[in-house]
Amino acid sequence: MMKLLVTGGLGFIGSNFVLHVLKNYDEHNVVNVDDEIIGSNHKSLVEVESSKKYKFVKGNITDHELMNKLITDCDAVINFAAESHVDRSISNAKPFIDSNIIGVFTILEILKNQKKRLIHISTDEVFGSLETESADENFRFNPSSPYSSSKASAELLINSYVTTYGIDAVITRCTNNYGPRQFLEKLIPKAIVLAASDIPIPVYNGGKGIRDWIFVDDHCNAIMKVLHQGKKGESYNISASNEMDVLTIVKKILSVMGKDMNNYKSSEDRPGHDYRYSLNSSKIRRELGWKPHVDFESGLKSTVDWYLQNKDWWKDVTDINTLNQIQWKS
User: Fold this and answer.
1) What is the pLDDT of residues 151-167, one digit of tens each?
2) Residues 125, 212, 218, 243: which is the catalytic one?
3) 125 catalytic, yes or no?
4) Is 136 a catalytic residue?
5) What are the tens digits of pLDDT across the range 192-222?
6) Under 8 Å CB-to-CB from 293, ≥6 apart: which residues?
7) Region 168-188: what's the mean pLDDT?
8) From the candidates 54, 83, 147, 161, which is the catalytic residue?
9) In 200-251, where do the E strands start and end?
10) Are strands 210-215 and 243-245 parallel, antiparallel or unpaired?
């Protein structure tokens, strides 16, 4: 039996990962530590709350005493916990420094004395805006926002602890995730909810920004591959080769929902907005035998269906009248 400590397991990717593990790995238990900040939702894991294989602990990853106790009692740490919204990092960077750097430092200090594996979930944004190339694992960092800078800093700190202290850590970077249980400040769920209410969807800079999209279950599967087969001190890029601009995504959502294809509006661009992210994921495909299984069209359709069928999940945490004023990480 393997006990996993999942940090930030009430968030989007974290909650989907917890469900993925408990549904597909009978020999794994999960302890989920989450501080219930913006983006956390207990409703995401209501179906496993009574499971003997799952335990929730409220807490912050900067709490050394708590994290030491939890890490001592587990076999591996999967670190999803992070402040992740670019626009909020521009407005106030401190929570991002606290969570994304100090939180990681806290975990690393504990792991100096414990032989436990750390899987750290990073982001494609550490490489900054790209023109035509796709970043592989050796591409230079060029972060544009306080958020992406904090994630790049965490990666450098982790690598130093691998080299200096010999801890067993592996880093993953993924492109834009989509799927069920994503907080509505993000592009796809926000567009779905606004379209359902026939409210124009705001898009940055004419929707020209390009992102690579991956269904969250494919990402979760990749993380498990890295947990069991990834090499100490390595990093692995995860992508599904679904590069599309934001306006194309918005129009695909409107089409799937049978809505007016022009139900969107231009929105003022944010400072330091990256034009394009792209990852080369040949390493994880070649070395660990991973590949995505969900094509974008079917993944988007299932995502739209989930939000329309699960209004109770989001209606209590989102004011539909102000949602279109909220900017999001696209």
Assistant:
1) 999 999 999 999 999 99
2) 125
3) yes
4) no
5) 999 999 999 998 778 888 999 999 999 999 9
6) 217, 218, 221
7) 95
8) 147
9) 201-204, 210-215, 235-238, 243-245
10) antiparallel
